[in-house]
Specification:
Length: 431
């Protein structure tokens, strides 16, 4: 572990997020809800989230608790965070959307205890690594998870953060003569990332990205360059943390970022990769792709998950096997990682009194579109049928050839159906 700042402690983190509420959420239609992740989660839960789940979002920031509440409308969501400004933004979004199944509180997650009861889902995304002692944080939230429940965690990967961590150290060093307070660090970081005298610097490689981040997403920029406290992990360190915290790794939340086999075009390289054990394969992905550690974990005391880690296609098939609770399904737009378009979230509502139609609208509401294929697919994926049956039925309705029974064909049919809309279905919990 590395990267702790000298100004460590809860108050510095609280001050940071009060000055830079995260994530940026000043307008409803900029909300990029984490459907894609939730979607993957839903497919790989060993015990599905109950309809009336209790969901804890520890370190909810501006909108994460709201995302869960929208995705699971019959759940009770409780979000806590240190930052009053983040919570104020969250409350205003909740009010604008008229969401009633979420409660927010300004609170240190380390104070969670038995009086809070147990939760079916505990999410702490991008939070524990900002605590002075992440292990203490993990143990505290793990103690709130019911047996069979699932934690959704994101922790910084050392490789992913390497240049940022270096840069933060530089900022601290150069800001120190001016007192090293948040204002001095901000000025120093701006001078170094946005100043014009650095066109040939190491950061110049990232300059367009950094500049864009600063202009379009200031909280993200601040998280990168002036955060007062963070810890990062390599893969062995991550698994040590989970074990010490009494947690069992279940799966990567975005499994496709951890599967690099299809990228090895040379058969010898592919064979060498395939001969590695699972951790070694992940080490390859960690070096090549540097994903953040976005994962699902259960209690170490739970029996091993029924479903071991699955490959890309399995995750896709599982994800697409959606069911609805009869009220609302959410689609996340533009998940195709090849297209770098802004995310757009669509909510799909059943139309009262009509079994054969759905309405799609954005969070800004009432932009009504009715893409027929998606609507048909939704109609067919009712939680009772298999993906195969749903695809067959949807293909038949739209005269798209459905090539037959092999798994690969099923995968490609699912992709064909889904990609035109850049959308995946999110499974809401059934009874
Ligand atoms: C990077 S943001 C992530 C927000 C949210 N989880 C998301 O993914 O959108 C980290 C959040 O953790 C909160 N936080 C950090 N330490 C905390 C603590 N000890 N108790 C509660 N919240 C904390 C911060 O205030 C901040 O809002």
């Amino acid at each position: 572990m590395s990267g702790k700042g000298p100004n460590s402690g809860k108050s510095a983190v609280e001050a940071h997020y009060s000055a830079h509420p995260y994530p940026k959420a000043d307008a409803i239609d900029t909300m990029a809800l984490r459907r894609e992740e939730l979607n993957t989660l839903a497919g790989r839960w060993s015990q599905p989230i109950p309809r009336d789940a209790r969901i804890l979002v520890a370190g909810c920031g501006t909108r994460e608790a709201l995302s869960w509440a929208l995705c699971f409308p019959q759940a009770q969501v409780y979000g806590c965070d240190l930052s009053s400004t983040s919570l104020a933004i969250g409350r205003s979004l909740i009010e604008q959307l008229g969401v009633t199944n979420v409660r927010l509180e300004q609170r240190d997650l380390l104070t969670l205890d038995d009086e809070d009861g147990l939760f079916d889902v505990v999410s702490s995304w991008g939070v524990l690594h900002h605590l002075p002692d992440p292990l203490q944080g993990l143990r505290t939230i793990r103690a709130r998870l019911r047996p069979g429940g699932v934690m959704h965690l994101m922790l910084y990967s050392r490789r992913n953060r390497y240049y940022i961590r270096d840069f933060q150290e530089l900022v601290r060093k150069l800001a120190a003569p001016g007192g090293g307070d948040a204002g001095a660090k901000m000025a120093t970081a701006k001078g170094l990332t946005l100043g014009t005298g650095w066109k040939d610097s190491r950061l110049a490689r990232f300059s367009e990205y950094v500049r864009g981040q600063h202009d379009n997403d200031p909280p993200h920029w601040a998280d990168s360059f002036v955060h007062p406290q963070e810890t990062d992990y390599d893969l062995p360190g991550l698994f040590e943390l989970l074990e010490a915290g009494g947690a069992r790794f279940l799966a990567w939340n975005k499994p496709w970022t951890w599967v690099v086999r299809p990228r090895f075009k040379d058969p010898k390289l592919a064979a060498a990769y395939s001969a590695l054990d699972q951790l070694e394969q992940w080490e390859v992905a960690d070096r090549m792709m540097m994903p953040v550690f976005d994962l699902l974990a259960g209690l170490a005391s739970d029996p091993p998950a029924e479903r071991p880690w699955m490959g890309d296609d399995d995750a896709l098939l599982d994800s697409v096997l959606a069911r609805t609770d009869g009220e609302q399904i959410i689609l996340q737009g533009n998940i195709d990682r090849g297209q770098r378009k802004p995310l757009k979230t669509l909510i799909v509502d059943r139309v009262k009194g009509r079994k054969d139609a759905v309405e799609l609208h954005t969070l800004a509401r009432f932009t009504l579109v009715r893409p027929r294929v998606v609507a048909t697919l939704i109609k067919h994926v009712d939680g009772e049928r298999t993906l195969r049956a749903a695809c067959e039925a949807a293909c038949a309705s739209h005269r798209v050839p459905f090539d037959g029974p092999t798994r690969q064909e099923l995968v490609s049919t699912a992709r064909q159906l889904i990609h035109p809309y850049g959308a995946l279905l999110v499974r809401a919990p059934g009874p």
